[in-house]
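Example for tutorial group B:
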């Protein structure tokens, strides 16, 4: 297992970074947050670039690079939900031109004839209100349902460009062909890894903004970045970020190689990303001073995306507990 990008991956990283800078600038994110601008043309761009086709597990590292850059840009499209939550639950159903969302809990499946009846409500479904297809996890298996069969109501979120929704399926009948052969546990590992990478990208953006600020902000005729206390906080952010980034890419590698350590790696990545966002959130806002609390400052989008990621798919404390249980059970060498 290699832990450094090869030449092709470095080229891919540079290509993705430049494309995201061009297609998803901070002005677009602010337009979505402030004026409700439609991000669907951006989704079309991702599809045209081929980014929505990264569904093969062998492409996990390439997908990870895209997710980090989109996290850094506070991507307002349903890319994260589609590629890391819906896609792994719906092998063979993914369409590069359609978005998807995963309904992980709250739905029951009752046998009826040669099919099932799906019923229930799932809360806080990522992009559940704007997906074309839904992958619904039940005790009877995973079913792919057209979003038009469900009722979705968007709910307020800490991140102003993030879509969360309460999704209700009321006596929706599906046939045997709607059930997929997905492994929900494996799909969860991919979802955790994707969320961790998104959080890492957001934290990178916050650190970049902080470093630019402390280099240009002067007090006592000196840039505040020259003060030791400021340097210590920036260093803490950098160390937390590098640890979280390394673990997130390790988790992506375990997905790509179907490594049995995937379950622990995914939890480690999510826990480390959660701890990272806590350090970055606290220090970034403090180093910006009062400016860090203003709507006009783009720092808010980065820290809100990272903080929202901590609240989804289990927080750092939950995943640390899972890792501890695995260690006590002898599953971690």
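The residue assignment follows.
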């Amino acid at each position: 297992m290699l832990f450094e990008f090869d030449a092709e991956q470095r080229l891919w990283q540079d290509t993705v970074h430049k494309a995201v800078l061009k297609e998803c600038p901070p002005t677009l994110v602010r337009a979505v947050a402030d004026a409700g601008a439609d991000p669907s043309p951006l989704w079309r761009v991702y599809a045209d670039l081929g980014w929505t086709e990264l569904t093969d597990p062998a492409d996990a590292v390439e997908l990870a690079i895209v997710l980090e850059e989109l996290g850094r840009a506070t991507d307002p499209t349903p890319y994260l939900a589609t590629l890391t939550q819906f896609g792994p639950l719906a092998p063979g159903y993914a369409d590069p031109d359609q978005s998807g969302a995963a309904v992980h809990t709250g739905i029951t499946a009752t046998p009826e004839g040669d099919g099932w009846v799906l019923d229930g409500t799932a809360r806080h479904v990522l992009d559940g209100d704007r997906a074309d297809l839904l992958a619904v996890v039940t005790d009877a298996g995973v079913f792919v349902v057209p979003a038009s069969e469900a009722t979705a109501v968007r709910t307020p979120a800490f991140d102003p460009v993030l879509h969360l929704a309460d999704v209700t399926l009321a006596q929706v009948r599906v046939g045997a062909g709607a059930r997929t052969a997905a492994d929900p546990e494996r799909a969860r590992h991919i979802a955790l890894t994707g969320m961790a990478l998104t959080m890492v990208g957001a934290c990178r953006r916050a650190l970049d903004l902080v470093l630019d600020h402390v280099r240009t902000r002067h007090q006592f005729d000196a840039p505040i970045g020259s003060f030791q206390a400021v340097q210590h906080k920036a260093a803490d952010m950098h160390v937390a970020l590098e640890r979280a980034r390394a673990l997130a890419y390790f988790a992506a590698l375990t997905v790509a190689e179907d490594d049995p350590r995937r379950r622990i790696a995914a939890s480690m990545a999510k826990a480390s990303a959660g701890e990272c966002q806590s350090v970055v959130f606290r220090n970034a806002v403090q180093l910006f001073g009062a400016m860090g609390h203003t709507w006009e400052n783009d720092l808010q989008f980065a820290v809100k995306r990272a903080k929202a990621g901590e609240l989804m798919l289990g927080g750092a404390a939950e995943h640390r507990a899972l890792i501890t249980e695995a260690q006590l059970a002898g599953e971690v060498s």
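Residues 32 and 161 are 7 Å apart (CA to CA). Compare this with the pattern of hydrophobic and polar residues in the output above.
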